[in-house]
Amino acid sequence: MENLIRRISEKYEVEFSRADSEEISALRELGFTEKLLEFYTKNMPQEAIEGEVILHDCQGILDEAEGGSPGIEMSQHGIFVFASTHSGDAFCFDTNNCDSDGNPRIVYTSHCILDEDCSKEEALAEVIPFSGSLHEFLLRFAEDDIPDHIDAVGDE
After folding, report:
1. Distances (CA, A) of 134 to 96, 99, 119
2. Once rounded to an integer, what is the mean pLDDT over residues 111-123?
3. pLDDT in tens, 5-17
């Protein structure tokens, strides 16, 4: 993972560093898994990284969860926006679905399909699986292989 982070850092000229304790506390309070907290403790981007999609820094993740759309609708159900398309759609950590190592799957969702009162079932019905882990997502991000829009599973 270190080589991948270095590659992204060099390509986009953005520094990654250790998240501070306040950032980690805020992410923990949101409901981030221990695997995600471990990653961000070591690899917090110091600003949003704009490539084919926008990879959020800590403040961007928090802003999405507290007031962005679809972040505010999804975060209450354990689905957290960490990257956004230029059209406002989102890539999220789905902490409801983690692999045996505790890595949440990455899902895609539209920015304008739910309201704040949606149920967990409604939220989960609106996500499209994208990759099995953050590592897989970052590999694709580094290669500019992230679509701006997905209509259905397998439709990139």
Report:
1. 15, 11, 25
2. 72
3. 999 999 999 999 9
**In the block, which residue shows the tokens 């759309």?**
69
76 alpha-carbon distance from chain centroid: 15
Residue 73 lies in a domain: yes
CATH of the domain at 92: 3.40.1580.10
Confirm whether 42 is domain-assigned.
Answer: yes
Mean pLDDT of 136-149: 91
Report strand pairing: 16-17 vs 44-45: antiparallel
* pLDDT at 112 exceeding the cut of 90: no
CA distance 94 to 92: 6
> What pLDDT sits at residue 114?
64
136-144 LR contacts (CB < 8 Å, sep 24+): 136/106, 137/83, 137/91, 137/106, 138/1, 138/4, 138/5, 138/8, 139/4, 141/8, 141/51, 141/52, 141/53, 141/55, 141/83, 142/4, 142/7, 142/8, 142/11, 144/51, 144/52
DSSP state of 140: H
Residue 150 domain-assigned? no
Predicted structure pTM score:
0.90
Quote the number of domains for the chain: 1
- Nearest-angstrom CA–CA distance, 111 and 132: 21
